[in-house]
Amino acid sequence: MSDRRRQKAAEDGERSLIGPPSGHAGESLLGRDASTPFFVYLLAFFSALGGFLFGYDTGVVSGAMLLLKKEMHLSALWQELLVSSTVGAAALSALSGGFLNGWLGRRICILLASLVFSVGGVVLGVAQIKEVLLVGRVIVGLGIGIASMTVPVYIAEVSPPHLRGQLVTMNSLFITGGQFVASVVDGAFSYMSHDGWRYMMGLSVLPAALQFFGFICLPESPRWLLQKGRSQEARQVLGRIRGGRDIEEEYDAIRGSIEEEARDGGSGGVVILRMLSYGPTRRALVVGCGLQMFQQLSGINTVMYYSATILQMAGVRGDKQAIWLAAATSATNFVFTLVGVWLVERVGRRKLTLGSLLGTGLSLALLAVGFLLSAQNSPAVTLHPVDARNSTCRLYGSCELCMLDPDCGFCYLENGTSVFDSSCLPVDPASTDSAAWGRCSNRTEESTSPYWAYNHCPTPYSWVVLLGLILYLASFAPGMGTMPWTVNSEIYPLWARSTGNACSAGVNWIFNVLVSLTFLHVAEYLTYYGAFFMYAGLAVVGLLFVLCCLPETKGLQLEDIENLFTRQLCSCGGLPANDSRHVHYVRVKGNNYLHSDNDASDVD
């Protein structure tokens, strides 16, 4: 395809102009000093409501589950089903979202996602049986998948280059904001022991309806309109989002990119196969999917899931306390995501991602050290009551060994910092909140009643783990929490953008499921500290991947970013934005096309 590009360009009298350093790229099209129309921020806000719903619906379930499992007598299997069904549905709809985006457009897909969110919220709010709850969670998952890959693409395509990183990152900010609001709502309704979960889950209808009615009046992406041949409508939309400034150069750049792909036969065939057969898009897909994979392999969902256990290790007991402190964890995540929004256009995507992965690896190592110290100082089992069922729990001599068996829990009395009269008992099959038999099977609120610990051990080293948790969120949120979505919205050419984002979002959800389902098994074989050391090692591998493969895209026009991937994959990361030159195509008279030698076609 690269040879055909040269020949066609020469025939049409195109030439490549070596532009200014890409740290300033795009200023000829849209000056940095020119005021950005309020309409662009309005578009970004209503789009990012999809991210808010994403965060709310994934975050609200943890608090709602504390009430649901008691009211509907949910077994551990049903609790896992209600959580994992949403993630599985999101993975499937994200993979199909590329086709929907190309067929229906970004605007219709966002409207569809908000409608699906609304229906799912209503179903969850009125559910009377657990089977209906499962249907509602699947419906919500379908909306999450569509929104997760559509919203970043839409925001990227309507944003001016100098604000694109901030506005796309705003979607991630809204995701963490949704998680924070969900935890606050969980806390507020946790005092309603009956039907409180209905309000928690049903309130998602409000932002979904706001987005739906808001987007009815908002335009389609001008790039998608041009791709579909609706040039006049595209020109009108582009003029509207650029505040009436001269749009001819930007319009011509977008149109030229689309025409070039059409001349090269880019409008036919299966898109994913064309992406894999063309070097630059293949490399971009490897980078985009790699970023999403390492986001999950860095353990974010495990850490967020395990935050409640970390708080229990620190001595927090009671559902209401745990819910409110989980809200503080979500608030920390939100605040540091806001830091990422501020930094993305100042330090660039590449540096922000590298710094984030470095901090993530170090903080995961600190978390592992905290769990290691807790394991080495684990309370001993001092009581061995007769077990009529002859379970394996009676064989364990310490809390740490007891915790590694998912069928066992630790029952103990506490006097200040000392633990005594402790035993390892089988967990109740109906609920992990109590033992199957014995003194911890029917606990009271009296001060002399024993404590029941599942998945954690009492320890004086909880402060190390808490510090690791805070540093982890502070490191992960600004970079790896946001950049995979931001970078994926930028690095694909228009013809491949929907499919590329669908594939990368699908990879994100697939590894989300993989990490979530394997964590307890990994912890059982490697111990908890071994699992977190493993995640720290994977974060280091991700750091090396980004160092070698991720180029800087700050300030570049979307149509110019493809040129960053004409080099071999492992050399793409060697092009800092403020040092490299970029190629921008403009149509001129004459046959002075400058041939490029950077058309390597293999992923190295």
TrEMBL record:
GO cellular component assignments: apical plasma membrane
PROSITE patterns to which the protein is assigned, alphabetical: MFS, SUGAR_TRANSPORT_1, SUGAR_TRANSPORT_2
CDD domains found in the cross-reference section: MFS_HMIT_like
Reaction(s) this enzyme catalyzes, per UniProt: myo-inositol(out) + H(+)(out) = myo-inositol(in) + H(+)(in)
Keywords noted in UniProt: Cell membrane, Glycoprotein, Membrane, Phosphoprotein, Transmembrane, Transmembrane helix, Transport
Membrane topology summary: Multi-pass membrane protein
One MF term in the entry's GO annotations: myo-inositol:proton symporter activity
Keyword Hydrolase attributed: no
Ranges annotated as spanning the membrane: 38-56, 76-96, 108-129, 135-155, 167-185, 197-218, 284-307, 322-344, 356-375, 461-481, 502-522, 528-550
Annotated stretches, region: Disordered: 1-23
InterPro entries linked to this entry: MFS_dom, MFS_sugar_transport-like, MFS_trans_sf, Myo-inositol_Transporter, Sugar/inositol_transpt, Sugar_transporter_CS
Protein localization: Cell membrane
Pfam families: Sugar_tr
Listed Basic and acidic residues bias regions: 1-15
Domain Major facilitator superfamily (MFS) profile: 43-554
Membrane found in the keyword field: yes
SUPFAM superfamilies: MFS general substrate transporter (SSF103473)
Function statement: H(+)-myo-inositol cotransporter. Can also transport related stereoisomers.
Protein family according to the UniProt entry: Belongs to the major facilitator superfamily. Sugar transporter (TC 2.A.1.1) family.
Protein name: Proton myo-inositol cotransporter
